[in-house]
Design a protein that fits this description.
Layout (H helix, E strand, L loop, with lengths): L15 H6 L18 E2 L7 E5 L2 E2 L1 E4 L5 H18 L5 E2 L9 E6 L4 H8 L15 E10 L2 E9 L2 H14 L19 E3 L3 E4 L5 E6 L5 H10 L4 H13 L4 E3 L8 H4 L2 H9 L2 E2 L29 H19 L12 E3 L15 H19 L8 E5 L3 H6 L9 E5 L20 E6 L17 H13 L5 E7 L5 H12 L6 H16 L4 H17 L21 E2 L1 H20 L8 H33 L4 H24 L1 H4 L38 E2 L10 E5 L5 E3 L5 E6 L6 E6 L13 E8 L3 E10 L10 E7 L5 E5 L10 H13 L2 E10 L2 E9 L5 E9 L2
Helix pairs in contact: 2-4, 6-8, 9-10, 12-13, 14-15, 15-16, 15-17, 16-17, 17-18
Length: 865
């Protein structure tokens, strides 16, 4: 294993030089300081480091015996320079052979060229020594005879050199998604970098993603284009991960896949490129779950996946995994984070009644295997115990693992973190979070399109950071595509959570879009991405059907009132119109990327809403014998056919490069599991002459008394205390945005502390008052399974409302399960306070912070006539 467990759980000692650059993750995605060193100089003929002159790049110098990861990134950087300038750079292994400007890439302590510059006092490397993945980029004048200037990229370790190099690639216009989303590279004959020095490093130690639920799309695509999920395919994945400044991967594992067994070159290439491999939450000691069902004739596996009855076989199986990890032959082994613990076979829960003592013994025996095979103490091998689903119960009931093992908390599979640390924040192994952008399970799979709001991801992962989850951040991304935007965001936030401020997060879509489609289009494309994320998060497409929203009435004049369904469709069609209007401004060479990243998801989701909206009207009208049902049947059938056309257009992109990637079924769900094939929803036709279809404006629900809806960001006044202040999070939730108190992760407050929001209302009628709080669904992460918030009217007493949203499998009653299902399906949660009759006129409704992580979207204030 390269790198011991002696590094602190929270990586990132800050020097003054580092702090000067902390506001910038990458030039294209966060708020860069105006005078940041090594920025791109746009003025023609500007003085600085000439990275490319008249299409010819500076020579590239890398030590001949550099680490393979450094050589890999140097090869990629040479291709990047050729993509930008049109010419490949000259490659050298010695500064003495260079003339003119050069780029020197190396690792501190392993590069004689760089170490010589350090000894000469040309590079101050004291703040790099011993650091995790840190790097410095520095421009030096006359570093060697005949070398006028050098851009030196020095890594504290091998991945530091990798990130420092890919950072330059991104700054000169090579997107991390240049291959995986066909983002074009803009040609420049001249590229000049401002002279200076820049240091950076990640704050979260292990940052990565999990390829999962990968059938049929990712698997089918890989088989068509690479012959399988093999090292040729993974070379693209590893490069993407590193370009996004991640370092940690859980590989595709749906049966019958096994990363290390299917292609032995997989683990060799991962290590050579600098990728830290792991295995998912139910795959101990580097063993893929499917391996247990292989090679049973070789005495390696066999019998029941049950430690109580088959411990010897399981230990033999796990030992083989660690022996394979150590087969590199250098005494260190292939770089991995080893998963410990045990779940049921096939990602199932352990047997009911499994004892905590047995699980503790399992971990102890696994660590014995680690120590025996590696020939060093177990604590020197990085390990992780995933507290996923029922495994969290064992932790809550007192199960503990050694201090050096990272505890990986999980969300509820729908974006709400279930648990975070409440004590022992200094434990050596630290904490992490396993998050989901994709899921197979109840209440329904979601794996077709991107349905992620980055605002929600930011709020939850900021909470995780504040509560000490700083060792591992890993996200389930299903097929990788079409989750390009949220994956970019997740890994950018993981690089430096403190730099990803609320303002940086809000600006992120425009900055990401500007880097992808050009700065002139950044704001407009970013606005489309933001609106798409909000609308898609309202209801995931797999949950959509003809009954998802209410239709309005057929009015006495024959007009059709679309009701809530009509309003939802109108939002999607407005987004589609805006996207279509912007498309002509997209450069021809960027059209494939545009279709993948912007056009396809908007077209596909809008069309799906049209399909089910037409089916809903067809069924309503057919039941009444109204022949207009036939027209809606036609509309539904056209929309169903259009869905296949949109998929075919995606698969035809760039010479069918992505053929198979959108093969996921998504129409015809009848339960949580995906249908085997697309199924056209049933429609009915009736005899008779159809009248004209005329829609009325969708109506809002009528109320006998007052009904006042207030968006949470529209508060009249906000009061903070104890270091807490309210902040608006634009777009978070279903409508305008949301409000919560920052910094997150702080203890509970009381009404006496006065952390509150004031909302002014004027009641026309008065009467008994009901205040409904529309919350973004969140969970109590302290283990109490309750979150409290206060409500009062004027100077009256504060009512403390308790929300006890509990996800499966912890939900112990049918009603609790239904409550959680509804909250994640609707991406919202409503709790109510009731007050005695109030007089007509002006009033102030006050909302009081009590517990952390309660996110308010809006209030609905009603009086009962």
């Amino acid at each position: 294993m390269s790198g011991s467990a002696d590094f602190p759980a929270s990586v990132g000692r800050r020097t003054l030089l580092q702090a000067s650059a902390a506001a910038t993750l990458v030039a294209s995605t966060t708020c860069a300081a105006a005078q940041e060193p090594l920025r791109l100089l746009e003025a023609k003929g500007a003085a600085g480091f000439p990275l490319i002159r008249r299409g010819v790049p500076a020579a590239l110098v890398v030590d001949g015996d550099a680490d393979p990861a450094v050589r890999h990134v140097a090869d990629a950087f040479a291709l990047d320079l050729a993509r930008v300038g049109g010419t490949a750079p000259r490659r050298l292994a010695r500064l003495e052979d260079a003339k003119g400007p050069v780029v020197l890439i190396g690792q501190l302590g392993r590069s004689p060229l760089i170490d010589a510059l350090v000894r000469q006092g040309r590079i101050d490397a004291r703040d790099l020594q011993g650091e995790w993945e840190a790097y410095r980029q520095i421009v030096l004048d006359n570093p060697a005879p005949g070398v006028s200037q050098a851009l030196v990229i020095v890594g504290a370790d091998r991945r530091g050199a990798v990130y420092g190099t890919y950072d330059i690639s991104q700054r000169i216009g090579v997107s991390p998604w240049h291959w995986f989303a066909d983002v074009p590279v803009h040609r420049r004959a001249d590229v000049t970098l401002a002279p200076g020095s820049r240091r950076d490093q990640p704050r979260v130690r292990y940052r990565g993603f999990f390829i999962n639920d990968e059938d049929p799309s990712f698997s089918g695509w890989a088989k068509k284009h690479f012959g399988g999920i093999n090292s040729a395919m993974y070379a693209r994945v590893f490069e993407l991960l590193l370009r996004l400044k991640g370092n940690y991967l859980w590989p595709a594992m749906w049966a019958p896949k096994a990363f290390n067994d299917d292609d032995p070159n997989n683990m060799i290439l991962a290590d050579a490129m600098g990728v830290v491999m792991g295995t998912s939450h139910h795959e101990p000691l580097t063993r893929a779950q499917d391996e247990w069902h292989r090679h049973t004739d070789q005495g390696v596996t066999g019998g029941k996946w049950d430690y109580a009855t088959n411990a010897e076989n399981l230990r033999r199986f796990w030992r083989g995994g660690i022996e394979r990890m150590m087969s590199k032959g250098d005494g260190k082994g292939y770089e991995c984070v080893v998963t410990v613990g045990m779940r049921g076979d096939g990602d199932e829960a352990m047997a009911e009644g499994t004892a905590t003592g047995l699980l503790e013994k399992i971990v102890a025996d696994q660590r014995t295997i680690l120590a025996d095979v590696t020939k060093r103490p177990a604590e020197t091998t990085p390990q992780m115990w995933a507290l996923y689903k029922e495994v969290q119960d064992y932790y809550d009931h007192g199960m503990r693992v050694p201090d050096d093992v990272t505890l990986l908390f999980a969300d509820d599979n729908w974006g709400q973190i279930r648990r975070l640390a409440t004590a022992d924040l200094t434990r050596k192994g630290g904490y992490g979070v396993y998050y989901h952008f994709d899921y197979v399970g109840a209440p329904r799979n979601y794996k077709w399109l991107n349905t992620v709001q980055i605002e929600k991801t930011w709020q939850q992962m900021d909470l995780a950071w504040q509560r000490g989850a700083r060792t591992i951040w890993i996200v389930n991304v299903g097929d990788i595509k079409p989750l390009e935007v949220p994956l970019s965001f997740f890994l950018d936030q993981a690089w430096d959570p403190e730099a990803m401020t609320l303002a940086a997060m809000t600006a992120y879509p425009a900055r990401w879009a500007g880097a992808t489609f050009g700065p002139a289009l950044g704001e407009k494309v970013g606005a489309l991405l933001t609106r798409y994320g909000q609308l898609a998060a309202r209801r995931k497409p797999e949950l959509l059907d003809a009954d998802s929203f209410a239709l309005g009435p057929v009015r006495t004049d024959g007009k059709l009132d679309g009701g809530a369904y009509g309003r939802e469709l109108a939002d999607w069609e407005a987004l589609e119109r805006d996207m279509t209007a912007l498309k002509p401004r997209i450069a021809t060479e960027a059209r494939d990327a545009w279709f993948q990243l912007v056009e396809h998801p908007i077209l596909a989701m809008t069309n799906l809403y049209r399909l089910y909206y037409a089916v809903a009207w067809n069924r309503r009208l057919a039941a009444a014998g109204d022949a207009r049902a036939n027209a809606f049947a036609d509309l539904a059938e056209r929309a169903y056919a259009r869905d296949a056309e949109i998929t075919a257009a995606y698969h035809a992109l760039n010479g069918a490069k992505w053929d198979g990637m959108m093969a996921q079924t998504h129409i015809g769900y009848t339960n949580w599991q995906q249908p085997d094939r697309q199924v056209m929803p049933a429609v009915r036709r009736v005899d008779g002459k159809a009248g004209a279809i005329v829609f009325a404006a969708p109506s809002l629900p009528a109320a006998a008394g007052d009904r006042i809806t207030i968006e949470a960001p529209d508060f009249a006044a906000a009061s903070g205390a104890k270091g807490l202040n309210w902040q608006r999070v634009p777009h978070l939730g279903r409508t305008l945005g949301a409000v919560t108190a920052f910094p997150q992760g702080r203890p509970a407050t009381t009404a006496a502390d006065g952390v509150r929001l004031n909302y002014r209302v004027t009641l026309a009628k008065g009467g008994p008052l009901r205040v409904a709080l529309d919350l973004a669904p969140t969970l109590d992460t302290t283990g109490r399974n309750q979150q409290r918030i206060g409500v009062s009217v004027d100077d009256g007493p504060v009512q403390i409302l308790t929300d006890s949203l509990v996800p499966a499998p912890n939900a112990t009653t049918t009603q609790a399960q239904r409550d959680w299902n509804k909250a994640v399906e609707e991406n919202g949660r409503v709790i109510e306070a009731r007050f005695p009759a109030v007089r007509p006129g002006a009033h102030v409704v006050k909302v009081w912070r009590i517990d952390d992580n309660v996110v308010l979207q809006r209030l609905v204030v009603t009086t009962e006539a």
